[in-house]
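Please fill in the sequence for the structure shown.

STRUCTURE ENCODING:
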């Protein structure tokens, strides 16, 4: 995951990135949705205005969230597997 500073966070959010911080050893995620910042963790979900978000998280360090890549499905392997005729 790429670490970024607060001033880099807003442009990243507006580009569609999801940011993450650790609050009390729990991940907290941030996304830009309809001109507001959506904040979400395991216990809560709420939105903040851009100004509120900037004032609350002025000194925070963020990471750009990169979900774990799952194994890609191969259409060729699927066709071969489902092409077998079991008798």
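FILLED IN BY: designer on duty
SEQUENCE:
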């Amino acid at each position: 995951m790429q670490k970024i500073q607060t001033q880099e966070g807003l442009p990243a959010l507006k580009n569609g990135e999801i940011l993450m911080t650790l609050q009390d050893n729990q991940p907290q995620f941030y996304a830009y949705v309809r001109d507001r910042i959506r904040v979400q963790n395991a216990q809560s979900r709420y939105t903040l205005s851009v100004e509120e978000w900037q004032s609350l998280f002025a000194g925070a360090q963020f990471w750009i969230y990169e979900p774990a890549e799952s194994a890609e499905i191969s259409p060729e392997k699927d066709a071969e597997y489902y092409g077998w005729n079991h008798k």
